[in-house]
Batch of 4 targets.
Target 1
Amino acid sequence: MERPAWAPRSIDVTVPSVSRMYDYYLGGSHNFEVDRQAARRAMEFMPGLPKIMQANRAFMRRAVRFAAAEGITQFLDIGSGIPTFGNVHEVAQEADPDARVMYVDHDPVAVAHSQAVLEGNDGADILAADLRKPWEILNSPEVSRLIDLNRPVALLLVAILHFVEDTDNPYAAVTELREALAPGSMLVLTHASYDGVPLPPERAGGAVDVYQNIRNPLIMRTRDEIARFFEGYDMVEPGLVPMPQWRPDTAPEDEDPYAFSGFAGVGRTA
């Protein structure tokens, strides 16, 4: 197949990637036919997947504005994906031009495109690394250059933990990250769940199977399992809720029913 100019030589364009599927759901252009095919297969079971992704992005922007209003000027976004309009650095640096944003992703397309988008922005950078190896992120020269871990940081784990299987111990990774953060830091998190999906679980399970088949299992966790990621944090009001219900800008009842799939929350370290 044709390899676009923006695609790094190292990537296999015959294998779907979750970050490029996400880009497709959001109407982006940094995806391949193999990603679009997998995304369309998932949408056969859950046609509202793009609405879920849009709700994720909208929550992320509200949470970044909230953190900035609370005086946080440093943002560590792990599993940041392919940058689209209204990304973390745009929202944070609009609130405070001196805000610093460190993106982290292991998808080569996400990394390459982020590098292009961030060129000339001294307050933002991208690191190729994996959430499952927090010590590599925390000890990287890129993070050290931008982020002072002795001052509060907003840690964003938006739509990423549901791609980490229990065997890879996501709770330990989140704990390790929390322990590295200064008091007054925040955790901004969303996670997929069968709770709130306006479909029977067996039908939604068809979409989950698509991710399983492309070797990127989607782990649907319960509200209680998601709440465990916030151990050691005090929850910010209104707590762990469906995405449209977290400090909404518009009436949640006007939202698409799919936007209520899964949970979002913000916690603060004491």
Note: The beta strands are 74-78, 100-105, 124-128, 154-158, 186-191, 233-235, 263-269.
Target 2
Amino acid sequence: MKIIRYPAADAWAEIVKRPTIDTSRLNETVTSVLADIRQRGDTAVKEYEEKFDHVSLESLAVTPEEIEAACDIVPQVLKDAIVLAYNNIKTFHESQRFEGQEVETTSGVTCRQKSVAIERVGLYIPGGTAPLFSTVLMLATPAKIAGCKDIVLCTPPDRHGAVNPAILVAARTAGVSRIFKIGGVQAIGAMAYGTETVPKVYKIFGPGNQYVMAAKQQVSIHDAAIDMPAGPSEVCVIADQSADKAFIAADLLSQAEHGIDSQVLLITTSEDILTGVQTEIEAQLALLPRKEIASEALKNSTLVLVKDVDEALALSNAYAPEHLIIQTENYNEMAERVTNAGSVFLGKYACESAGDYASGTNHTLPTHGYATAYSGVNLDSYCRKITFQHITKEGVRNIGPAVEIMAAAENLDAHRNAMTIRLKSIE
């Protein structure tokens, strides 16, 4: 990891820079696959499953029998953990329900807003070396609470055509409607366009590799909304002299093991913490099964020593991290001054892993600096807000002349006339 001590403000841009990847050739591949799926549907999907996931599938749909078998396979201790996490996620997201109010903006004009669920949503759940069954809970639980009628899930099968059983258990627990054995770009295309088997959805959620992210971006232009743009996962830790070095090292490594393009950042006011965390990272890294992945990620990462917590917070807000851990004595005060972050973890015992699994907050978060403009997935992600207005004769009298004047100033005479004929009708 790079170590930077007391950087000048003009060096911050380099500190907050993310790893860059040339996606030009990747995008060409994605465009080609998506076009093929749009044209040939299930046939193309099955061919790409054979090509990319190395499995020949007769049927893309997961059967009820497969789900039942998964429930028998998954150890009870894991099923209990899934239910505990589900209940906490459900509790937190139920608290986000929207209650609109009718407002009289002026006498005779009333306006209100209603939250309406997106009828059909698609969830993408990666498989591979880390089958993210926790993400099923994070995405399906708020969809169900919001009232989405159809929750479609795609996830890659193994070479025997089976889906990870924990993913199936989580899907059943959270209320997923339909599950399909499709991975990668072909899954995004199937949900965006619809095939003979997979229904077209209106919005697609979920993480994935660079190909999946590129596919989501491409289909979002014309065919389906997406949760948010995303890049590799990341964490920033702000620490003062009171922080626990072993805890910090563990948090940095838990993020680094996600992938070789992940990034971790420590901002500390203490030289002792900086050097101590570096030593702890080396000791803990040696014991990790995914140490090669974590080691590569650490090459993208930085330890920064700053003069005080004010500077630490300013640098963190400039970075806009996906995950922010604040291990300082005054963490509650610091929390109030956070302006850019996906999810914030307060105090030495709030590890990022808690949010990833079971505290109740959502772990699908903006990365790559998008926390400056995007929220993490929440109940509103699955809803649309529809506005309503009612205008009486008195309301027409009150706002009609202003409407006429403004429409005329914009040279939109038909707009003006729509109000003028109403004004005349009540004279």
Note: Residues 71 and 169 are 6 Å apart (CA to CA).
Target 3
Amino acid sequence: MLSYVGETMGNLLHQTAFFNLTWGNYVMILVACVFLYLAIRKGYEPLLLLPIAFGMLLVNIYPDIMISPEEASNGTGGLLYYFYTLDEWSILPSLIFLGVGAMTDFGPLIANPISFLLGAAAQFGIFAAYLLAIWFGFNDKAAAAVSIIGGADGPTSIFLAGKLGQTGLMGPIAVAAYTYMSLVPIIQPPIMKLLTTKKERAIKMKNLRPVSKLEKILFPIVVTLVVCLLLPTTAPLVGMLMLGNLFRESGVVRQLTETASNAMMYIVVILLGTSVGASTSAEAFLNFSTLQIVALGIVAFAFGTAAGVLFGKLLCAVTKGKINPLIGSAGVSAVPMAARVSQKVGAEEDPTNFLLMHAMGPNVAGVIGTAVAAGIFMAIFGI
């Protein structure tokens, strides 16, 4: 009897995670706890960072939560494996774009078309990182998948990695992209302040013109026609983004708008965030290649921010001080965090300066620009 009890207790004890974790798992658990702290205590985009951090925590405590059916002894995959499959199939990234479109007012972009140029300038970081990734030794498709992190657009990063067949790199790429999206309030301000003067940061821009309902309805239709005819492979992202916005602006499908921008959006964020976080098992994440991807991501994001601000300075000079260069930093597609950062940095110089709506123009243009950049890479590689 005693031997049976002892054996049973021993089996129970050895089934605990303590006997199965490696030092790498403990490192990743610590990283997850840091991310949870940043999300909860510091409020750094908790809608993204909280599920990512918790997914990271789960997979490093119980790796089988991401096990595939082929690897499982009973032929049934882990819960988060099936969530992650939806990422690989580009379903969740496309649904995220649908929700973003339904939530976003494209009016500032329509009212100030020059915002398209600022959004385009911020994509410089993507192509700079592409060349740098090739120099680091990544093959051309892997370099393209990594470089899209510079757009600070998690869904597009996942989408492109899947389309280019880089599923092995999808986890590190997605985590880097979403982490940098969440840390926009930390990463961008020092770059913005370094590249602008106090006088430039204090520039007040005149109010945007009113945008008619007809313009707002035509905009998503025209953009879909133009972009998807030129780059048909962007249709899953650009098409869903514009469909969500057409729901919003048409005014005839209120229920669809509310569902896309609320219930559906938050469900997708939960599935995508936890599955992205669960791709960071110690075995998959703690290696030299992943560290290179993380490093390239921050370089790409910094370059994109700098390019947007520098182009903003150029437009400021051309317009004789009518454009605040800070809004150029919002050309990365972290909507609406990057626009809020432009507002915050400008308000530090002058509390009466309201740049948010002006920054939303480049911010929305950046979303479209990053999807176009992904389409260009797919066209280059014949996808």
Note: The mean pLDDT is 88.
Target 4
Amino acid sequence: MAFICRFAPSPTGPLHIGGVRTALFNWLLAKKNKGKFYLRIEDTDKERSKEEFKKQIIESLSWIGIKHDDKEFIQSKNINKHKEVAEELLKKGFAYKCYCSEEEIKKQKEKCKNQGIPYVYNRKWRDAKDVAIPKDAKPVIRFKSKISGNTIIKDLVQGEINISNSIIEDFVILRQDGSPTYQLSATVDDHIMKVSHVIRGDDHKINTFKQKQIYESMKWNIPHFAHIPLIHSEKGSKLSKRDKSSTINDYVKIGILPDALRNYLLRLGWAYKDKEIFTLNESIQLFDLKGVGKSPSKLDMSRILSLNEHYIKNIDEKILFEFLKNYSQKFKKAIDPSKEDMIVKSISFLKNKAKTLEDIYNNSQYILKEEITITPEDIKLLDSNSKKIISEFLEEFMKIKLPTKESLEKIVNSLISKHKTNFKGVGQPLRIALVGSRFGPGIYNIILSLPKNEIEKRISKAS
């Protein structure tokens, strides 16, 4: 069997992190089985769909390493085919025209609400006889859902799901203006695209039962369905677009690496033995739907940061610099080309304890800034004795042609002995003079990362 999976977002807003995980699971299943992974843009909501969101969806998936096969499918281009299928269902007796007004539907919903029961359309026009069609009324077309019996879906994640057909209303497939609804469009498109596996959030379970009836009525092959649990916020509620960590952009702008986020989303609701870190190839080789859990997954920002720190520590430093360079240009201030070599040379210690690219960028500020400013709290620490120490350090430092850690240690140890102090007594005022704060990278790393004339300028200014 050919494996064909798809991801079908609506371009009505930034790509949700739950959508990214859904796309990832579809992509991994397709790639593991040498199949195809398609991207379908469901843009039939013309009022809310925007080109900028479509572009953001494609860029976000590409950023995390998910490349779709062929060109993306644009749902609105298939509307005529959707309408044809609606007319065929009508012709075959699997659908009917409903002339209920919006006011009638509203009253039905209010009645159900007052009775404390779920709203189900009352099927007034399903087998209407001797009912006068309202003058100038434009009907919707409703699917004639099964009334009795049960329907079973063998879900690849949830197991066998059995529901009573009575709870599925006669849902609309064509609106009054002739536009198709999601239930119809998604089903027709999946059939046209020959989708073999539909992996989506478990909030789509009821949609699957509706769509299965369309498949059966049209005598089409029914794909395999897998409904994955939703992602919840750290507080345990359903993650919404209002949450600060709900879209992929929320992670990109704080400097999360794509491999780290992909690894996190892979493990969010899926497991393979006790393995935590997966390369992209391992993700493809080891992924299967049997490893997906049935319970909702809770977003854990601390775990994301921990994984990101792991990737920052282990990634090739030249690649890390390119990530930093792109991040700085997009979200901060572009790195001056004249400072690039200094950053590259220093990135091995600038990344120490960094959990994000933003941390590395902040650690690099003493290199990137033309002028450093000493904080008010730290300037108080530069007393007369501290100024004397750093002045004497500079005097000895300028005698060295090519500074090394060993030559710097010799000067520092000499000053410690002369002034009867400790390493902090020398290192702290030097760090304040060179980076503007008593906090920062190791003092030897700082000194060796800056040009000699810059060391002279900064210490002279501070002393």
Note: The chain has a mean pLDDT of 93.
